């Protein structure tokens, strides 16, 4: 029985391997469609896998292209934004430059108009800057006064400039071993006399040297210089008790008496007119009376007797009595002088 079954299985396998052919001795055909479908299914699966692989590869390429395009677009966006910011800033700069240019043009027009309208003022401003530079340099190189004296004498100095000259002068005075010490010394005192007579007279460190040197200062001065200096000295004398200035007043009057201006009648009157009180004028004249009777003091006494300005200063009996006694004394001096001159003749 078992043998028969083995033979049957062998016949069926042989029939299937013959791909559906009818076994000559078996007239019943065998159906092979399932095998064909299986093979086609395998081929379809292979094709599908191949197509899927191609699709995935194409999809990856597309993703890479999109990524590249996105990166490029992002970079271009950043560049575009940066370029926009740069252009905006440059535009702002151009606008600011245009505004600045218009303002500069307007400022230039204003300067041009100012220069055309006020050349004298501009000249004074420029000269003032030059003078200030010279004065500041004197504090460092006080000997430079020799080179800049003429410039300073012809310049308009301000009150604050006195300190520059004082520092330079005191520095020169301390350095008495300098070979040109006396020349520098005189240069400073000339400038101080010309511009700062009041300040120099009131300054305790300069006063003695100032009045000791006043002879030379008056000798080289012009009339216009004296017109400016004399009121300053009178202001210093009358600021306190005039009697305290006896030594300085004598030096001042003696310097004028020895100068070219001693014989000019205008100067006694000019001095008298600078006083603003009768008492100060009387005290000043009393000091003057103690001096020798020279040409200037004689002219001064005559001017005082005839001075309307002096008479106008008298406001009370005390002043009047003092003034009358002084003028009577002056008349006696003048009469004595005239008699001496007539006897000599």
Q: What can you tell me about this protein's structure?
A:
It is a single chain. 78% of the residues lie in helices and 0% in strands. The protein is mainly α and 345 residues long. Among the domains are: 109-195, no CATH class; 223-340. Helix 5 packs antiparallel against helix 6 (181-195) and helix 14 (295-306) crosses helix 16. The longest helix is centred in the first third of the chain and has 85 residues, at 33-117. The radius of gyration is 60 Å and the shape is rod-shaped. Residues 16-27 have low confidence and may be disordered.
What is the CA-CA span between the terminal residues? 207 Å
What structural class do helix, strand and pairing data support? mainly alpha
The count of β-strands is 0
| Low-confidence sequence ranges | 16-27
- H/E series: HHHHHHHHHHHHHHHH
Short structural summary:
By secondary structure, the protein is mainly α. Among the domains are: 87 residues, no CATH class; 118 residues. Helices cover 78% and strands 0% of the residues.
Tags for this model:
345 residues; single chain; mainly alpha
Secondary structure layout:
Blueprint: H1 2-17, H2 33-117, H3 119-138, H4 145-153, H5 161-174, H6 181-195, H7 197-202, H8 207-212, H9 214-219, H10 223-239, H11 246-257, H12 266-272, H13 278-289, H14 295-306, H15 308-312, H16 317-344
Helix pairs in contact: 3-5, 4-6, 5-6, 12-14, 13-16, 14-16
């Amino acid at each position: 029985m078992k043998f028969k079954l083995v033979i049957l299985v062998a016949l069926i396998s042989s029939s299937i391997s013959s791909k559906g052919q009818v076994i000559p001795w078996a007239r019943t055909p065998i159906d092979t469609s399932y095998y064909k479908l299986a093979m086609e299914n395998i081929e379809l699966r292979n094709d599908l896998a191949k197509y899927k692989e191609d699709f995935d590869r194409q999809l990856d390429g597309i993703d890479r292209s999109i990524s590249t395009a996105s990166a490029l677009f992002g970079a271009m966006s950043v560049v575009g934004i940066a370029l926009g910011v740069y252009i905006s800033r440059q535009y702002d700069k151009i606008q600011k430059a245009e505004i600045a240019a218009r303002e500069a043009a307007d400022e230039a027009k204003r300067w041009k108009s100012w220069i055309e309208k006020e050349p004298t003022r501009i000249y004074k401003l420029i000269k003032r800057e030059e003078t200030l530079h010279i004065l500041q340099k004197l504090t460092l190189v006080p000997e430079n006064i020799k080179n800049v004296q003429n410039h300073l004498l012809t310049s308009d100095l301000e009150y604050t400039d006195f300190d520059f000259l004082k520092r330079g002068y005191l520095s020169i005075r301390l350095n008495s071993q300098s070979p040109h010490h006396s020349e520098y010394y005189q240069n400073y005192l000339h400038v101080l006399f010309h511009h700062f007579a009041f300040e120099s007279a009131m300054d305790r460190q300069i006063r003695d040297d100032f009045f000791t040197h006043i002879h030379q200062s008056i000798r080289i001065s012009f009339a216009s210089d004296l017109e400016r200096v004399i009121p300053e000295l009178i202001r210093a004398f009358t600021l306190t008790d005039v009697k305290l200035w006896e030594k300085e007043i004598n030096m001042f009057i003696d310097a004028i008496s020895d100068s070219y201006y001693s014989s000019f009648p205008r100067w006694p009157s000019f001095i008298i007119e600078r006083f603003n009180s009768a008492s100060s004028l009387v005290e000043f004249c009393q000091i003057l009376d103690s001096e020798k009777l020279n040409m200037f003091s004689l002219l001064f006494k005559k001017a005082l007797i005839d001075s309307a300005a002096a008479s106008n200063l008298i406001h009370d009996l005390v002043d009047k009595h003092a003034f009358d006694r002084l003028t009577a004394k002056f008349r006696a001096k003048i009469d004595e002088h005239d008699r001496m001159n007539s006897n000599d003749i």
